[in-house]
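Record format v2
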Amino acid sequence: MSTVIKGGLVIDQTGERNGDVVVEDGRVVAVGPDLSGDEVLDASGCVVAPGFVDIHAHLRQPGAEEAETIETGSWAAVRGGYSAVVAMPNTNPPIDCAAVVQEVLALGRPAPCDVYTSGAITVGRKGEQLAPMAEMAALGVRLFTDDGNGVQEAGLMRRAMEYAAGLGVVLAQHCEVDSLAAGGHMHEGEWSSRLGIPGVPAEAEELMVMRDIALSRFTGAPIHFQHLSTRGSIAMVRAAREAGLEVTAEAATHHFTLTDEACASYDPVFKVNPPLRPADDRDAVREGLSDGAVDAIATDHAPHSPDTKEMPFDQAPPGMLGLETALALALTELNLPLAEVVGLLSWQPAAIAGLKGVHGAPIAPGGPANLCVFDPNETWTVDPDALASRSRNTPYAGRQVRGRVRHTIVGGNPVLVDQEMRP
Amino acid sequence: MKHLLSINDLGAEGIDEVCRLADHFTEVSQRPIPKVPALRGKTVAMLFYEDSTRTRLSFEVAARRLSADVMGFSVSASSVNKGESVRDTVATVSALGPDAIVVRHRSAGVPQQTAAWTHASVINAGDGWHEHPTQALLDCYTIRDRLGSVAGRRIVIVGDIKHSRVARSCVMAFTALGAKVTLVAPPTLLPPEVGSWPVDISFSLDAVLSDCDVVYGLRVQKERQSDALLPSLREYTAQWGLTAARAARLHPDALVMHPGPVNRGVEIAPEVLDQPNATLNEQVRHGVAVRMAVLYLLLAADPDLRPEGAGA
C-alpha cells in the first residue's frame, strides 16, 4: 500500500522544490512531478517537511497518567506535526535506570509517533549520585538530563560530563541555581514586584549556563542547554559556539511568544519554569533562533490536570502545553523563512537527540517516511477543548495563530490525515 | 464597581468617595445605636485563610453596623484542613448566596481568582505580598482626618517593603492622592525593580526624618534574619527603628503610623507609641468606618440594588 502526497512544496535540509512524494513500506520511494499511489493526501498550498522532533516533552507516564499518557501525548505530538518525541525523565518513578527506560519504550511502541526517552543524570534526579547512564545508553538513550532540576554541584556535573562523553551521549541541562531561584514563582522584575509574587532572577539561569560552558571547555564534553530564556544565556551560548565549543541550545515556544506581564492575571496557566521573561529577553530568544545561537525549538510540553492548575499562583505547578501549537507559534511569532522554521523544528533537534538519518532526514528515495505536511497560511484559533492532550493548560486559549498541520506520516503510516487522527 | 481587589480599582476619585462615605459612617458609629439598615438582607462572607484579628473583626463590625448578615468561615474548622481547594471552597461559600466575600489568603492573587469563581462581590482583605487595599484606605482616611489632606504630604514608609502588601497598597493610594512617598529600608527589604515605582528611595531613616509629615512603620518579621535579609533585629532597630531619639527629631505635627501588630521596641520604641502623634488606635477605629464605606459602595451604591428606605 503506497501513499502519495500531492501538490506540496517539499522543504528539507537540501533545499526546496515542488513535487509529489510517494511513500511505501516505511520509506520514501519517489519524489517528483505527477506521481501516484494507492492513497492520495492533498498537499496543495502546503509544505511537505521531514517530521518534527520534540527533544523536550513531558509525557507524564509513569506516575501522572491523570495529566497525560504516552498515548495521549503522542497524539498531541502527531497533531503538531511531530514524528518523534523525547520524553523527559521527571516521572514517578523517574527514568533513571534501565527498567524504567524499558517500561517507557514499551509504552511508546504502539504510540502513533516514535517515542524516545531521555534518562536522568543522577539517581532520582536528586543531584547526588550518577545514574547508571551506560545501561540506559545501551537501550538507546542519547540525551541525559535531570530536567525540572539543574545539577547543582559543579564537581558532580564535571564527572557526569566526563562519563557521558565516554558513552557518546549528550547531557542536557535545566539551568537553574537553586539557591537563587528557591521560592520564586515568576521572573523577578518589575512585574513580580508589582504583583507581590516572589521572583526567580535571570541570573539563576545564567550562572549555570556560565558554569557549564566552563565545564564543557574543561572536559571537552558536549553540553546541551534546555529552554534558554534570557538574553544573557543566549549571548553566552553564542560566544561559546564562536569559540568552537560543542554547545547546543533549545528555546521553548512560550519563551519567544509570551512575557512575564501575562502573570498579571494570576492565572497559573502562565506559570512555567524557567519563567516567562520581559520583552527584551523574549526578543533575545527570537534573535538567537534567527542567527543560529539557538539550534532548536522545543515545546517543554508540560501537561497538568485542571485541579492542580486551579490553585493560588504560588501553589500551582509550573508548566504549559506546547506540542499542538509549536509550529503555529513559530510561524506566527518568528519572522523567519519557512526552511529555517522547519530546520528549528526538525533536523536540528534531531541531530541533538542523536536521531539523524531516522528523523529530520532529507526527503529522497530510500529515506525514512517520517513526514509532516502543513499549511503555512491557514489561520485558526486555539481551543483548549479541541486538543488531543489529556490536559487543558494551554496559555494560548483564544489566540489566533497561523500555520496548521494537515497530515503527519510516521514510518510510512498516515497517522494524521486532514487533521483527523487515524488510530 | 463590583470588586475591591486593588487600590487601582478605585483611583483618586474612588478613594475620595470612600473617605466621604467614611465621614458619614464615623458619625453613625458615634450614635447611641451605631447601626443603619443600609445593607439589611445582604450577607457578607468572611473567607480568611490566614490569621487576622483586627482586619476580620473590623469587617465584621462594619458589616453588622450596616445591618448585613455575617457568614464566618473559620479555616481551622473547615474543609480546608481536609484538603479542599480554594476554588471548591469558593464555590461552596458562593452556593450559600453571599452578596460579598471578604478574602484573605497568604498567596498573592487569590482575591482576583476568587472574583472569577463567584458571582458575589469580592473584597481583598490582604493577599500575600500583593495588596491590602482597605488598610491603605483607612490610612488615607487617618492622614486626611489629622492633617486635612493627603495631597502634598511627605510620607516616609520604613521597614520590610519587599514582603509588605500594606506598602504596595499604600504607595498606590498615597501617590494617587498626590503625596510624595519615600521608601526607607535596607536594599534587601526593597522589592525588585523598585525604581519603577512612583517613589523616592532612601537607605537611611536619619536622612529623611526631619523633613516629613508622616512616618509609616511596617512590621519586620523575625524570619528575615534566617533568610539572610537582615543580620539581626537589633541591627535593624539601630539603623531603621523609630527610636525615641529619632522621634524627637520629627516635626511636632508629624504622624507616627503603623498597620499593626507592632513589634514594640523593634520598629517603633514603646514610648513613641504612647505619644499623641502616634495614630495606631485611630487607624483601627477608622478601619470600621472605612470598611462600612467600602461595603456600602460595593453592595448598596447601585441604585437598582439599594433596598427601599434603607438610606444611610
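The mean pLDDT of chain B is 92.
The longest strand of chain B covers residues 121-127.
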